Amino acid sequence: MRKNRTVMSAVLVMMMAASWPLSVTPVASANAAAAQTTLSASSAGQPMAKSRAAASPSAGVPQEIHEALVRNQGHQEEKWRFIPSTSQSVIFTFGGLSKKEPLVHVLDAMKANEMRGTFFVTERELKRNAENIRLVRSYGQDLGIGLTSIKGGGTAAEYAMQIQRVQNNLQQQYGVTTNIVRQMASSDNEAGMKEAASAMKCWFIGQGLNAVQSKDKQAQSADEVMPHIFGKWTTSLGRNEIVYIRTDYYEKPSLAAEVMMAIKEQKVDNIAYDTYTDNPIDNHQNDSAYRIVSVQDVLDEPAKLYQYPVNPLDLPCEMRPGYGVGYITNKNFQQEFFKRYIGAPGVTMTERVLGFSRREMALADQTGLVKTAAPQTVFLTFDDWGNDESINKLLYVLRKHRVHATFFIITKNMVHNPNLLRAIVADGNEVGSHTDHHVPMLRIDEKGHSRSIEDDEVYRQNVRSSYEKLFGAIGDMKIENGSRYGLTRFLRPPQLAISRDGCAVALDEGFTYLVSGAGSTEDYGAVSMESLEGIMDHIVHKRNGDVRRGAIMIMHMSSTASRTPYALDLLLTKNDQRPEGDPKKFKVGLLGDYLRDGYDQRMATPKDMREKQIDY
What we know:
Elements lengths: L1 H18 L10 H8 L25 H10 L6 E2 L8 E7 L4 H13 L5 E4 L1 H6 L1 H9 L3 E6 L8 H19 L5 E4 L6 H10 L3 E3 L3 E2 L11 H8 L12 E5 L8 H13 L23 E3 L1 H5 L33 H8 E2 L10 E2 L3 H6 L13 E8 L3 H13 L5 E4 L8 H9 L3 E4 L8 E3 L5 E3 L3 H19 L3 E2 L4 E2 L1 E5 L6 E2 H9 L4 E3 L3 E2 L8 H12 L11 E5 L7 H14 L9 E3 L27
Parallel strand pairs: 1-6, 2-3, 2-8, 2-9, 3-4, 4-5, 5-6, 7-8, 10-21, 11-20, 12-13, 12-23, 12-24, 13-14, 14-19, 19-21, 22-23
Antiparallel strand pairs: 15-16, 17-18
Helix pairs in contact: 3-8, 4-10, 7-8, 9-10, 14-19, 16-17, 18-19
């Protein structure tokens, strides 16, 4: 059985290697760069660049550029919407340096608010707008290479030559050395630009947010522009997301600066944890605010950069997707389920259960407790996914109180912000799956009958892809001083609903434990911070006030649970103030330190953990 699983794992790894182009950054090691070039543009599913690299250089192509293109073997650099880094920042970039007045407005606002950015310079601007470029430098801002389209599409060699010319001019005229390139407008040969950037070992910068829309050229206020560049549910920018602003586009000279400041105030400043008694301005220990920085500022913190996605071949077999697949059979499922299911008091035959017999559910766990938990220990967990505005506040509260939690992630949208997921683990927290698209194992139909929503194969792909996506972002990260990986094989069923077939599929896909919990705060519907803190207190404490040892508390990390960080801060602050030895004082553990080494939920519930029913 083990041999079959190992073979299956190896096959899946080879499939992943073929389907995941490794976006090795230009600052990666020579070995990583060599590995990257083996994945050609064609194998990555990208259009081949119009390249004329041959045995000898074409007329007018410098020898060094020809050799760089040959060594590059046609590889195309990633067009980055974000820089893969856990640095606590957002990146602002700018183009359009032809007009001095709007540029001064932008530079003055940046100076007044200690903001930095990258200003991309084209060959045309080098010739015509030297005064404005010197102005940018006089404010201490960074310059980058603005790559413009060549008539007829151009070749990779021609774009590499353009990069080289702008690099040389920036160095000679302004003392700037840079390998940061941006495509300034649409091109008939973007693939050639990407190949040139790769050959010249440059970062090829795109944007996660383009703050200039054609409909807003005559706008008179930032209030007119902001609804056009942000969707209804975009409450904040992402960690190291790249914002692009063209300074000379609007007819109103000050509008680019006004839009820039509106973005900062409404979509960056709100990411910080900010209360009357605890905010980044008055409390220097409050490190929750994001900086606004240049591309180079992020690159200058190499310890926080990473390769995305993670290369599965760099990690041990037991961490790779596919490991442990194929273990569950009809014969062993029942006992494996009893062993590896941490249930919940509210999940019974009459609600959120499909396919199990009454006898099976009577034997299955309904405590939601980790039965081997150390004295006074409880567990904090968060479900779903969110954005920097919601999750960063939780991370700050956990850091503030020196505790850690388990984050169960819906992975469908996580792939747009892997930096935030890595930040969760970088803080010492661990991660499990909440499936890829949060479809529960069952639903109640109009007649009140439980029905499966997805068939077994669809659900299998749902849970399988969730682990693959988590692995691609954080599979290489370790916690607890490097003693273990932060990515677990725990799965929390959406809505805590379980079906026999769904549980069998999840366990068969290599998930080691199905984790519900002792109580959900249902914080997405909280009416006040104080009432929510009271619910939290009732989950981690018994009726008599003693700590509910082993209790797993379920919270949420989405923007709909906006009161959760503040209520949790209040709960933990009260707990910190209790003296040692107080029976109400709890400790916070990590599930991964207990649900391991054959942990078996079938064990008898210790006497001190037994209760008739948890009430909230």
